[in-house]
Amino acid sequence: MNTSKTSSAIINRSIKNRKNTVHYWTVFLVVSAATVGSAQSPAPTPKPAQSPVAALATSLQAAPLFISIGDKPAIVFDAPSVKAAKTFILMRQQPVEVLVKLDKWIKIRDADNTVGWVEGNAVEPKRRAQVSAPLADIRTMPNLASSLVFEAQRAVILDVTGATIDGWVPVRHRDGQQGFVRKSQVWGE
């Protein structure tokens, strides 16, 4: 009997039927020990295929999706229904993180880490950032050596004008001033 083919069959069956990682590694170690003891060279160890659950978990670990409340304040509900309890109101243009989209409803998280549901028509895709530091420095270039354009206090909302560069977010204040703020000083980016 060919030990290499038998080992591969056991590993493949184990990968397909494994209940947890401990079971997989136990079978792997037993098969590896049997292969090392044989006169043939060991077969390459196959990498287990990524399960659908693992693929979903990987996709959920992607960068968070941020959007903004539209031009009107939004009512936040505790469930995806207008009949659900109203928990609070978010001010206009406030950035929120999308957690789940369900039909015409979006489960969101705000800068205070409060979670709730808003109607899909209450948000817009525009990217904004909310100052989370007591005072954020907005600079001309994405580095600490560049000159200061302005300072923004906590809770000020800034429009995000481009992609983050080495931890610096390009932003514009509603009065037209623009520059770069450190990502650690804002929420929503």
The coarse silhouette is: elongated
Q: Cα-atom Rg, whole angstroms?
A: 26 Å
Number of distinct helices: 3
Sheet with most strands = 5 strands, antiparallel
Largest beta sheet: strand ordering: 6-5-4-1-7
Beginning-to-end CA distance, first to last residue: 59 Å
Structural class: alpha+beta
Q: What is the share of helical residues?
A: 10-25%
Strand content: 25-35%
Order of helices and strands: HHHEEEEEEEEEEEEEE
Low-confidence stretches: 6-39
DSSP E strands, number: 14
Task: Provide mean pLDDT, rounded.
Answer: 80
Short characterization:
With 189 residues, the protein is of the alpha+beta class. α1 packs antiparallel against α2. It is 22% helix and 34% strand.
Structure description:
This protein has 189 residues and is α+β, with helices and mostly antiparallel strands. 22% of the residues lie in helices and 34% in strands. It is built from three helices and 14 strands. It has helices spanning 3-17, 21-37, 52-60; strands spanning 65-69, 74-77, 86-90, 95-102, 105-109, 115-119, 123-124, 128-131, 135-139, 148-153, 157-160, 168-172, 178-182, 186-187. The strands form four sheets. Strands 6-5-4-1-7 form a five-stranded antiparallel β-sheet, with no helix packed on it. A five-stranded antiparallel β-sheet has the order 13-12-11-8-14, with no helix packed on it. A two-stranded antiparallel sheet has the order 2-3. A hairpin with a 7-residue loop joins strand 11 (157-160) and strand 12. Helix 1 runs antiparallel to helix 2 (21-37). It starts with a helix and ends with a strand. The model is unreliable at 6-39 (pLDDT under 50).
